[in-house]
Design a protein that fits this description.
30% of the residues lie in helices and 24% in strands. It is of the alpha/beta class. The chain folds into two domains: 69 residues, membrane protein fhac (Ubiquitin-like (UB roll)), CATH 3.10.20; 159 residues, 3-Layer(aba) Sandwich (Rossmann fold), CATH 3.40.50. The termini are far apart. Belongs to the FtsQ/DivIB family. FtsQ subfamily.
Length: 274
């Protein structure tokens, strides 16, 4: 039987040394290749392709504004940081950034679709179609036809939802909502395009909508008694269980005693007279 003798110590050392040298050389080659890839101008980001429906931005200005903040090349650029840089541009809601070999980025943008102003007149915030609040260049927006919504922090989606329900409910009167406000106590108030103020009261959205619908159904009959039309409305208080109080241009509405405003008052409807 043939017996295999162990390799001498010096042979083992030579084998280990050769392996270490081989691994070291491979690591140096890899490092040199990585350095070459990182430094070679062929892989520098030289083109940014911008896609998407854009109304308030354009591809040229986006590239000019965002490119200086992008660092790295095709392999090393941080796509998350690049996406955030594009999303910081006014009116940009969402950006998707992808690499495109060998030196390009492809960016798909989605802008905010503004549905209303948000907050006080002095602010620069708007509400988009998702009910999200965003900062906008107000000077770029035409004020006519866009309502203003207000409410406590975090209620923009709720206020937009109620506006979308009330706007068509008031359409038969040809009176558009110019402002809709939700108070801290949960009471709703609307200002119409003709300047009329409406107290809508509190409760659920369905309860508020029912009060408005009742108001719309009966307003023409009430105003006709005073030879007026709906556009003569100056103010309305719908916070009553069985009716509402009105003030028309040239006509005063009074009642014996009006209770102080509260979310769910229970007084009887106002009696109208010249």
């Amino acid at each position: 039987m043939k017996r295999t003798l162990p390799a001498p110590l010096d042979v083992k050392l030579m084998n280990v040394t050769a392996s270490v040298l081989f691994v070291g050389c491979a690591a140096l080659v890899l490092a040199a290749a990585s350095w070459w890839v990182v430094r070679h101008p062929a892989f520098s980001i030289s083109r940014i392709i911008v896609e998407g429906e854009m109304v308030h931005n354009n591809a040229f200005t986006l590239r000019a504004n965002v490119a200086p903040s992008l660092t790295g090349n095709f392999f090393t650029i941080d796509l998350r940081a690049a996406r955030e840089a594009f999303e910081e541009v006014p009116w940009v809601r969402e950006a998707q950034v992808k690499r495109e070999y060998p030196n390009s980025l492809r960016v798909e943008l989605h802008e905010h679709v503004a549905e209303a102003f948000w907050g006080p007149d002095t602010g620069a915030e708007m509400v988009n179609s998702f009910g999200e609040v965003f900062e906008a260049n107000i000077g770029e927006v035409e004020r006519d036809g866009i309502p203003r919504l207000q409410g406590p922090a975090g209620t923009s989606q709720q206020v937009l939802q109620v506006y979308r329900m009330l706007a068509p409910a008031l359409a038969p009167l040809a009176l558009e909502i110019d402002e809709l406000t939700l108070s801290e106590r949960g009471s709703w108030r609307a200002k119409l395009a003709n300047g009329a103020q409406m107290e809508l009261g509190g409760g659920t959205v369905e309860q508020v909508l029912q009060r408005v619908q009742r108001f719309v159904r009966t307003l023409a009959t009430v105003t006709a008694q005073y030879q007026r039309k709906a556009d003569a409305l100056e103010s309305a208080d719908l916070r009553y269980e069985d009716g509402y109080a009105l003030r028309l241009h040239g006509v005063s509405t009074v009642q014996g005693k009006m209770p102080p405003p509260r979310p769910q008052p229970q007084p009887k409807p106002a009696a109208a007279r010249r």
